[in-house]
């Protein structure tokens, strides 16, 4: 089981691909949600308000992935899918790639469009640094204050990341661990008397 994924940390530089007077501007952005996709798309549309087509593709998620490809008025599968193909080719997720087309008066045909959108998406992804991150599971640990030392000892021994904590009479600590440690960490806490562990829903 793999517990890492590749993504980008920063937006790409703007790239430009020209074909028979048509201009294709390409961008890659890191995204965490579909709401973010909409916001970025709105910004790019404002920036390129005289563009003819704003085509894009994105992939979001690590354990389960969702993706969308949009041709924005170009012939079916001539823009969105070639862009998405590059996201797959670079093996990245939590990424949005947008290509804005300014029509130059000469039709490119479906084959020409596929090449232009694919090349622009590739150029955008080539300008960014691709990083590897770990896929983590988050757990909520509940216990009485008197059991604090037991819990903290395990957190230290297993080198776990504390995300949040509320330390009162009733204590709650949110921890994160790598996906490959998931079962081991659950079992360790589950066997400690008077300590409860539950997986946090995404």
Task: Provide a concise account of the structure shown.
By secondary structure, this protein is α+β, with helices and mostly antiparallel strands. It has five helices and eleven strands; from the N terminus they run βββαββαβαββαββαβ.
**Beta-sheet strand percentage?**
35-45%
The CATH superfamily name of the largest domain is: Impact, N-terminal domain
Structural class: alpha+beta
Spans of at least 5 consecutive residues whose pLDDT stays below 50 are: none
Span from first to last CA? 20 Å
Number of helices: 5
The run of helices and strands is: EEEHEEHEHEEHEEHE
Instruction: Estimate the helix proportion, in percent.
Output: 25-40%
Spatial ordering of strands, largest sheet: 2-3-6-4-5
Main beta-sheet strand count, sense and barrel state: 5 strands, antiparallel
Q: What is the total tally of β strands?
A: 11
Give the tally of structural domains. 2
What is the CATH topology descriptor of the largest domain?
Answer: Ribosomal Protein S5, domain 2
- CATH-defined architecture of the largest domain: 2-Layer Sandwich
CATH level 1 name of the largest domain:
Alpha Beta
Instruction: Calculate Rg over CA atoms.
Output: 23 Å
Average residue-wise pLDDT:
93
Shape: elongated
